[in-house]
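Chapter review. Work through the record for DUF1295 domain-containing protein before attempting the end-of-chapter questions.
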Amino acid sequence: MSFDADGFVGALPWTALAIFGVLVITYIGGRIAGRHSVVDVAWGLLFIAAALTAYLLSAGSGDGLRRALLLGTVTIWGLRLAIHIGVRSRGKGEDPRYAAMLRDKGLLATILMVYGLQGLLAWVISMPVIVGMYAGGGWWPVVWLGVAIWAFGLAFEAIGDAQLERYKANPERPRVLDTGLWRYTRHPNYFGDACVWVGIFLISASAWPGVLTVLSPAIMVYLLAFGSGKKVLERSMAKRPGYQDYMRRTSGFFPLPPSRRSSSTEAPSRWSSSEER
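Structure tokens for DUF1295 domain-containing protein:
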């Protein structure tokens, strides 16, 4: 096994600079569009910027196939997410979550809270990718296990997003989406995201010292399951008719068979509410 430590250390400021560059462009776009929620579109692109930069800088280091897999998995995931969120948010105003968070905040606080924090998180979570670019050798069954988990997660979140879009396009939709993958988890897109990053971590962890970057996927999973993902979303969703009953019978994150617990005795009337990603 071999690891180009000097190359890795040298790549750190350049990957950070690549993420910073995407954020600068995003900030300009947000000012033009009049909404800071454009940063959601850029979220996946931040990881692509870091992965591509590390891939180019690591030429001649590490394992060529592992490097290509890391770049490919991050790029496919990031582009799909950016396109999905971009199409979904086209023509809409500011996300209420950002409006509430930034109320009475000055320019500096806005930049730090929206762009600075997301940039820092993307850089830290990208560590398995950056480290893996400079690692040689390793145990390849773990690589293919990682690819399989990544593919499962990507398919899971993509199917969940497609089911959500079909639901939102139906004018006669029921009050809550509780069919398809949404029958087994209230957040198939977040669960799929978590699987994607566990898979990417395993690709890197197959060779030393990739296993030391376990904090990165742990942060991503925590944010999705307990932090700014599920927790923040459900704070507003719980106010909608029928959603608390849905919460009682449906797993919050990991897909499980629905519970029979339900306190609702109302008829399944129709509402215009829907879950957002």
